[in-house]
Amino acid sequence: MQKHTISAIICLAGALVAAAIAGASFLAMRKPDLIVRGPGVTDVKMLSDWFPGLKGTPGDTEVYILKGADDGASMLVLGGTHPNEPAGHIAAIMLIENAQPKSGTLYVIPRANASGFTANDPQEGAPQSFTIQTPNGPRVFRYGSRATNPIHQWPDPNVYIHASSGQTLSGSETRNLNRGYPGRPDGTLTERVCYGIVQLIKKENVTITVDLHEASPEYPVINAIVAHPKAMQLASDMVLGLEMQDIKISLEPSPVNLRGLTHRELGDFTDTLPVLMETANASQGRLRGRTDEALVLTGKDKWYVRAEKLGRLYVPYDEKGHPLEERVGRHVTAISELMNSWNLEHPEKPLEFEGLPGYEDFLTKGIGVFLLPLPAKN
Amino acid sequence: MSQEFLLFILMVGVFAAGCFALKWPVSVSMLLAAVAGALAGGVQNPIRHLVEGTFGYVDTILTIATAMMFMTGFRDSGALEALTAAVIRKFNKLPGLLMILLTFVIMVPGMITGSSTASVLTAGAVVAPMFASMGMSALDSGALISIAAILGMIAPPVNIPAMIIGGGIDMPYVGFEIPLILLTFPLAIAFAFWFGWRNVRKVDRSKVVESLDFSALNQYGAWRLFSPLILIFVLMILDKTVPRVFGLGMPLIFLLGTALTWVTGKRFEILKSAKKAIEDVLPVLGILVGVGMFIQIMTATGVRGFIVVNALSVPPALLYVMIAVSIPLFGAISAFGSSSVLGVPFMLALLGKDQIIAAASLSLIAALGDFMPPTALAAIFAARVVGLEKYGGVLKKLVVPGLIIAVYGILFILFSKQIRALY
Q: Would you say residue A71 lies in a domain?
């Protein structure tokens, strides 16, 4: 056998072994993390129940319904719009596993972009999951991609053209759920998921929609709430409520010329009052150092500390970082305050829930104590 | 000395040792550097990371491979030679105008697709023999094709680095047309004269036409011979203007063009031609795969953050120097990657400037990354289409133009508000 043939066989064998190991790792991402039905959950449906076009697709996702004994307003909470922003996903799970409804209905979609949870962004070096310790043992959660898995929607065009406005963005944004609203029934998978969420909002007449996000510390809109003009009063009241608890949050109006986002399109195309919330997540930033589970959980990063000293950040950053419990605490507390603000103005149509941990609870006790035990394996 | 700095030195050292001491291919050296970084940096599940990093270039690899197949088929059908003969016969007496015209022709595919590689491998390859016929040296010709390609990538309507930078600060890609025209068109005209005019004015124009071969053109006719190229351009334009109807994507467009070359000119073995094209381009595709692994490990180990924060650490007065130096240098890995990793943080540091002009200027500077080895896509392919085995000579020719382009971009940032007031 010639020398180069032997070399080729060795290289091919090496490539096959690498492909098998990496392939197994990629396939494992398709197994979703487990979410436990809390005492307040009255029903679990799929998004395809509102838009059958999603049935059987990787975009279909669970909708947890927590319906109170008394009628009232309704709220939809979107977690996991960007699966590399874990505080939004975990905050949604906190609602599912802890909230107990009294009046009104809560709809929670913890994996708004379910496809995005099945992959990581190439060249971002992100972990595939992170583990939260609980009194009942560890629970593992997926850390995914900002966008829909290219296996499910490929190839990207060079330029993404937003369907209803004609706005152009770079091609990879075509898989970004928060650039695809109000969506199209015959569009890309991402646009169909957007359309499904819009159908849920319209058919259930959802009063308030909250989209939970995180931002990199160098991004100007951070520790912030972005509100559509018609939700501005509600958001202002919420900000005051958070300030009373010594939680600093800024209020930003939804830009008119930035299209495809929840806080703009859901307000323009439906009757819901949409807001979007951001916390500080180092693991998605461009200035971050070592990227691993520890960074996701603690937010401790020496390069962000240095960048803060250089005046390059929009959020205070020191050696303590911004741990996940702080970020989840901000989201959950903000949702509680949003309900309080609504109830103050609309006592005739209340939205009342109990059992949600407060901000201090998260800071002092952590997240794990508020996660329910997983059902025993058969 | 930070751990990230040591890892960076290790990775660059292994790469350099592989390339220069052991004379291994660039792609293999990149792979070994990434493996060394992953092991020394304690990256968990390193094989998954190495494989995942390569996926960042899947679309680029498909585009390059199919574009090469198309250009090889177009050449083997006799169309390339015939096109050169036809154009030179028409414009032989107006060489100055022809130089500018051909420079803009090279830019067009980049303007439509946002890819400098598309410009070089389509229009660049078509224009290269024309430059040669007009008396340009291969080095000058390669340099001008490279420059026109990156200017085409930045010129409107499609500028992907600007979209990436804008996306990072939630700025829509709106209102960029005039700044991008001001940034690219004057440079294109200036460099067309720089590289072209001084060469072509020395040539005896009467002998140029005599040396051309018109046989294929006479046998098959212009429309039939050039129809694959026309098909490519029409499909590219339809792909952008009505993407929901004709959204075929660049690889499929090139494959359709390749199939057409088989029946429009001289008969040739299409499978043999396609195989030759892939053999020619394989080293470059390997580099992209290696670079994908390298950048993934840099990110996972924190080396990327170390580079970005240090680039931002300079005093305000040196910020512009750092922009002009670090963004093209990081572009050695990827111009688009540099736009995201460094372009966005620098854009945030420039929020006091006119944002559209600043982002447009940063995108121009980022495009210089396509000149930077080891990827140096614009320079490598330009050298190839002008018939050079190595691209080092072309790179040398690009040093001064690259500096001019960087300074021009920085001036636009510095005077962004004054420039904005002009229109």
A: yes
Check A291 against B299: CB less than 8 A apart. Answer: yes
Domain of B318, in residue numbers = 3-421
Average pLDDT over residues A164-183: 93
Mean pLDDT across the stretch B169-176? 84
Domain total of chain B: 1
Does B313 contact A at CB distance below 8 Å? yes
Q: Could you tell me the CA-to-CA distances from B37 to A329, B13, B33, B129, B289 in Å, in that order?
A: 36, 10, 6, 44, 16
Length, in residues, of chain B: 423
C-alpha to C-alpha distances, B392 to A299, B146, B283, B377, nearest whole angstrom: 44, 13, 16, 13
Mean pLDDT rounded to a whole number for chain B: 91
Question: Would you say residue A156 lies in a domain?
Answer: yes
Fill in the amino acid letter for B214: F
CA distance B75 to B264: 12
Among candidates B163, B164, B306 on the partner chain, residue whose Cβ is nearest the Cβ of A303: B306
pLDDT of residue A216: 95
User: Is residue B402's pLDDT more than 90?
Assistant: yes
Which CATH number characterizes residue A180's domain?
3.40.630
Q: For this complex, say whether ipTM is above 0.90.
A: yes
Residue of A nearest to B297 (CA): A125
Other C-beta atoms lying within 10 Å of the C-beta of residue B218: 11
Give the domain extent around A72: 40-370
Say if CB A288 and CB B341 are below 8 A apart.
no
B305/A155 touch (CB, cutoff 8 Å), yes or no: no
Q: Are strands A250-253 and A208-215 parallel, antiparallel or unpaired?
A: unpaired
Rounded distance between C-alpha atoms, residue A98 and residue B1, angstroms: 47
A residues 282..311 contacting B (CB < 8 A): 286-292, 301, 303, 306-307, 310
* Average pLDDT for A211-216: 97
Q: Note the pLDDT tens digit of each residue in A21-53.
A: 999 999 999 999 999 999 999 999 999 999 999
Which pLDDT score is estimated for B81?
Answer: 85
Q: Least CA distance to B41: which residue of chain A? A: A290
**CB–CB contact B167 A170 (8 Å):** yes
Length of chain A in terms of residues written: 378
The total of structural domains in chain A comes to 1
| Mean local confidence (pLDDT), B189-203 | 84
B299 touches chain A (CB under 8 A): yes
DSSP states of B175-198 as a string? S-HHHHHHHHHHHHHHHHIIIIIH
Residues A204, A43: Cα–Cα separation, whole Å? 14
Considering only CB atoms, A287 lies closest to which of B49, B59, B305, namely B305
> Who among B52, B115, B312 is closest to A310 (CB)?
B312
Alpha-carbon dihedral sign for residues A262, A268, A270, A273:
positive
Residues of B in contact with A22 (CB under 8 A): 47-48, 50-52
How many Cα neighbours within 13 Å face the side chain of A333? Answer: 26
Min Cα separation A17/chain B (Å): 10
Cβ-Cβ contacts under 8 Å for B125 (sequence gap 6 or more): B71, B74, B75, B80, B385
Mean pLDDT of B200-228: 85
Is the model's pLDDT at B213 over the cut of 90? no
Instruction: Kindly list the distances between the CA atom of residue A14 and the CA atoms of A208, A295, A338, B28, B366, in Å, as whole numbers in the listed order.
Output: 54, 32, 55, 13, 35
